[in-house]
Write a structure and sequence with these properties.
Elements lengths: L1 H24 L2 E4 L4 E4 L4 E4 L1 E3 L3 E7 L5 E3 H7 L4 E3 L5 E5 L9 E7 L4 E3 L3 E6 L23 E4 L2 E4 L4 E4 L5 E4 L5 E4 L5 E4 L4 E6 L4 E6 L2
Parallel strand pairs: 2-11
Antiparallel strand pairs: 1-4, 3-8, 5-6, 5-9, 7-8, 9-10, 9-11, 12-13, 14-15, 15-16, 16-17, 17-18, 18-19
Length: 215
Amino acid sequence: MKKAVSVVLVLVLVLALGAVAHADFGIVVTKHPTDETRAVGETAWFVSGAQYYTSMDWSFVDPSGRTYTVNEFRNMFPTVTVEGEFTTTLTVKNLSMELNGWAVFCNFHSSGDNASTNWGFFHVNPSVAPTYTTPTYTASTYTTPTYDYYTYGDTTYYWDGTSLTDFGDGSMMYTGTDGSVNFVGDDGSYFNVYSDGSWDSYDAASDSFSGGMVY
Protein backbone atom coordinates (compact mmCIF):
# COMPACT_ATOMS: atom_id res chain seq x y z
CA MET A 1 0.00 0.00 0.00
CA LYS A 2 2.77 2.37 0.92
CA LYS A 3 4.50 1.55 -2.36
CA ALA A 4 1.39 2.40 -4.37
CA VAL A 5 0.98 5.67 -2.57
CA SER A 6 4.61 6.50 -3.23
CA VAL A 7 4.15 5.88 -6.98
CA VAL A 8 1.12 8.14 -7.08
CA LEU A 9 2.99 10.87 -5.22
CA VAL A 10 5.87 10.62 -7.68
CA LEU A 11 3.52 10.94 -10.68
CA VAL A 12 1.80 13.94 -9.14
CA LEU A 13 5.18 15.53 -8.47
CA VAL A 14 6.32 14.93 -12.08
CA LEU A 15 3.14 16.45 -13.50
CA ALA A 16 3.42 19.41 -11.19
CA LEU A 17 7.02 20.00 -12.13
CA GLY A 18 6.08 19.71 -15.82
CA ALA A 19 3.33 22.29 -15.40
CA VAL A 20 5.72 24.60 -13.57
CA ALA A 21 8.31 24.11 -16.27
CA HIS A 22 5.75 24.95 -18.94
CA ALA A 23 4.63 27.96 -16.96
CA ASP A 24 8.21 29.08 -16.62
CA PHE A 25 8.94 28.67 -20.33
CA GLY A 26 5.59 29.97 -21.58
CA ILE A 27 4.81 29.76 -25.29
CA VAL A 28 7.74 28.61 -27.41
CA VAL A 29 7.76 29.77 -31.03
CA THR A 30 9.28 27.02 -33.17
CA LYS A 31 8.85 28.44 -36.65
CA HIS A 32 8.73 31.96 -38.06
CA PRO A 33 7.12 32.80 -41.44
CA THR A 34 9.58 33.50 -44.22
CA ASP A 35 9.37 36.11 -46.97
CA GLU A 36 7.33 35.23 -50.05
CA THR A 37 8.28 36.47 -53.52
CA ARG A 38 5.40 36.18 -55.97
CA ALA A 39 3.93 37.88 -59.04
CA VAL A 40 0.65 39.75 -59.17
CA GLY A 41 -2.26 37.30 -59.16
CA GLU A 42 -0.30 34.47 -57.57
CA THR A 43 -0.61 32.89 -54.09
CA ALA A 44 1.65 33.33 -51.04
CA TRP A 45 1.92 30.90 -48.11
CA PHE A 46 3.22 31.81 -44.63
CA VAL A 47 3.91 29.05 -42.13
CA SER A 48 4.45 29.39 -38.36
CA GLY A 49 4.76 27.05 -35.38
CA ALA A 50 4.80 27.11 -31.56
CA GLN A 51 4.39 25.01 -28.44
CA TYR A 52 2.23 25.42 -25.30
CA TYR A 53 -0.38 27.72 -26.87
CA THR A 54 -4.17 27.40 -26.82
CA SER A 55 -5.19 29.75 -29.64
CA MET A 56 -3.64 31.72 -32.45
CA ASP A 57 -4.33 34.31 -35.13
CA TRP A 58 -2.50 36.26 -37.82
CA SER A 59 -1.93 39.97 -38.32
CA PHE A 60 -0.95 42.07 -41.32
CA VAL A 61 1.53 44.96 -41.28
CA ASP A 62 1.63 47.77 -43.85
CA PRO A 63 4.94 49.31 -45.02
CA SER A 64 4.65 52.03 -42.36
CA GLY A 65 4.50 49.44 -39.57
CA ARG A 66 0.81 49.73 -38.73
CA THR A 67 -0.87 46.41 -37.90
CA TYR A 68 -4.27 45.15 -39.06
CA THR A 69 -6.46 42.19 -38.22
CA VAL A 70 -7.34 39.75 -40.98
CA ASN A 71 -10.85 41.18 -41.26
CA GLU A 72 -9.50 44.72 -41.51
CA PHE A 73 -7.16 43.55 -44.24
CA ARG A 74 -10.02 41.88 -46.12
CA ASN A 75 -11.96 45.13 -46.11
CA MET A 76 -8.97 47.00 -47.50
CA PHE A 77 -8.25 44.45 -50.25
CA PRO A 78 -11.55 42.82 -51.23
CA THR A 79 -10.05 41.15 -54.30
CA VAL A 80 -7.42 39.36 -52.20
CA THR A 81 -8.46 36.08 -50.58
CA VAL A 82 -7.12 35.17 -47.11
CA GLU A 83 -7.49 31.65 -45.73
CA GLY A 84 -6.25 29.89 -42.57
CA GLU A 85 -6.14 32.85 -40.18
CA PHE A 86 -6.58 30.46 -37.22
CA THR A 87 -4.13 27.83 -38.41
CA THR A 88 -0.36 27.69 -38.66
CA THR A 89 -0.50 28.22 -42.45
CA LEU A 90 -1.81 31.52 -43.78
CA THR A 91 -2.76 31.46 -47.46
CA VAL A 92 -3.08 34.74 -49.38
CA LYS A 93 -4.45 34.39 -52.92
CA ASN A 94 -4.67 36.73 -55.90
CA LEU A 95 -1.91 39.06 -54.73
CA SER A 96 -2.08 42.68 -55.81
CA MET A 97 0.84 44.99 -56.51
CA GLU A 98 -0.21 47.14 -53.51
CA LEU A 99 0.85 44.33 -51.16
CA ASN A 100 4.51 44.73 -52.05
CA GLY A 101 6.30 45.64 -48.80
CA TRP A 102 3.51 44.42 -46.53
CA ALA A 103 4.17 41.69 -43.95
CA VAL A 104 2.37 39.18 -41.75
CA PHE A 105 3.10 37.66 -38.35
CA CYS A 106 1.44 35.04 -36.19
CA ASN A 107 0.18 35.58 -32.63
CA PHE A 108 0.06 32.66 -30.19
CA HIS A 109 -1.97 32.85 -26.98
CA SER A 110 -2.34 30.84 -23.76
CA SER A 111 -3.99 31.55 -20.41
CA GLY A 112 -0.89 33.23 -19.11
CA ASP A 113 1.23 34.15 -22.08
CA ASN A 114 1.27 35.65 -25.59
CA ALA A 115 3.98 35.34 -28.18
CA SER A 116 4.41 36.54 -31.76
CA THR A 117 6.59 35.40 -34.62
CA ASN A 118 8.91 37.51 -36.72
CA TRP A 119 7.47 39.20 -39.78
CA GLY A 120 7.27 37.51 -43.14
CA PHE A 121 7.24 40.02 -45.99
CA PHE A 122 5.42 40.13 -49.32
CA HIS A 123 7.67 40.77 -52.32
CA VAL A 124 5.22 41.22 -55.17
CA ASN A 125 6.44 41.61 -58.73
CA PRO A 126 4.39 42.85 -61.68
CA SER A 127 2.79 40.05 -63.61
CA VAL A 128 4.60 39.33 -66.84
CA ALA A 129 2.35 38.61 -69.78
CA PRO A 130 3.40 35.54 -71.74
CA THR A 131 5.49 36.43 -74.74
CA TYR A 132 4.61 34.82 -78.00
CA THR A 133 7.08 34.71 -80.83
CA THR A 134 5.41 35.21 -84.16
CA PRO A 135 6.33 32.23 -86.31
CA THR A 136 8.41 33.08 -89.31
CA TYR A 137 7.60 31.27 -92.48
CA THR A 138 10.06 30.94 -95.29
CA ALA A 139 8.38 30.67 -98.65
CA SER A 140 9.26 27.48 -100.45
CA THR A 141 11.44 27.97 -103.46
CA TYR A 142 10.45 26.13 -106.60
CA THR A 143 12.83 25.71 -109.48
CA THR A 144 11.31 26.38 -112.87
CA PRO A 145 11.29 23.10 -114.82
CA THR A 146 14.08 22.85 -117.35
CA TYR A 147 11.81 21.11 -119.89
CA ASP A 148 9.91 24.26 -120.90
CA TYR A 149 9.40 23.20 -124.51
CA TYR A 150 8.64 20.10 -126.50
CA THR A 151 9.47 19.20 -130.07
CA TYR A 152 7.68 17.04 -132.61
CA GLY A 153 9.15 16.59 -136.02
CA ASP A 154 10.41 19.92 -137.29
CA THR A 155 8.18 21.99 -134.97
CA THR A 156 9.24 23.19 -131.51
CA TYR A 157 6.52 24.28 -129.11
CA TYR A 158 7.66 26.65 -126.37
CA TRP A 159 5.98 27.05 -123.03
CA ASP A 160 5.83 30.58 -121.58
CA GLY A 161 3.08 29.70 -119.11
CA THR A 162 2.36 29.98 -115.45
CA SER A 163 2.27 26.32 -114.51
CA LEU A 164 3.38 22.93 -115.62
CA THR A 165 1.67 19.75 -114.48
CA ASP A 166 3.63 16.53 -114.62
CA PHE A 167 1.21 13.60 -114.45
CA GLY A 168 4.03 11.20 -113.67
CA ASP A 169 3.30 8.91 -116.60
CA GLY A 170 5.19 10.88 -119.21
CA SER A 171 2.32 13.23 -119.99
CA MET A 172 2.34 16.92 -119.12
CA MET A 173 0.04 19.93 -119.31
CA TYR A 174 1.26 23.49 -119.83
CA THR A 175 -0.93 26.43 -118.84
CA GLY A 176 0.14 29.65 -120.54
CA THR A 177 -0.01 33.22 -119.28
CA ASP A 178 -2.18 34.05 -122.27
CA GLY A 179 -4.81 31.44 -121.40
CA SER A 180 -3.47 28.72 -123.63
CA VAL A 181 -3.52 25.13 -122.53
CA ASN A 182 -1.13 22.62 -124.04
CA PHE A 183 -1.34 18.94 -123.23
CA VAL A 184 1.40 16.49 -124.20
CA GLY A 185 0.65 12.79 -123.97
CA ASP A 186 3.06 10.08 -122.98
CA ASP A 187 2.96 8.70 -126.53
CA GLY A 188 3.94 11.98 -128.18
CA SER A 189 0.39 13.11 -128.85
CA TYR A 190 -0.52 16.66 -128.02
CA PHE A 191 -3.57 18.90 -127.87
CA ASN A 192 -3.20 22.67 -127.80
CA VAL A 193 -5.79 25.37 -127.21
CA TYR A 194 -4.47 28.86 -127.95
CA SER A 195 -5.52 32.23 -126.63
CA ASP A 196 -7.09 33.24 -129.92
CA GLY A 197 -9.44 30.26 -129.77
CA SER A 198 -7.60 28.13 -132.29
CA TRP A 199 -6.47 24.68 -131.53
CA ASP A 200 -4.46 21.89 -133.03
CA SER A 201 -3.78 18.34 -132.07
CA TYR A 202 -1.59 15.47 -133.11
CA ASP A 203 -2.50 11.85 -132.60
CA ALA A 204 0.70 9.85 -132.52
CA ALA A 205 -1.13 6.52 -132.70
CA SER A 206 -2.77 7.31 -136.04
CA ASP A 207 -0.14 9.81 -137.13
CA SER A 208 -2.86 12.35 -137.86
CA PHE A 209 -2.95 16.10 -137.35
CA SER A 210 -6.01 18.30 -137.05
CA GLY A 211 -6.82 21.86 -136.02
CA GLY A 212 -9.39 24.62 -136.08
CA MET A 213 -11.17 27.21 -133.99
CA VAL A 214 -13.02 26.81 -130.73
CA TYR A 215 -16.59 28.14 -130.97
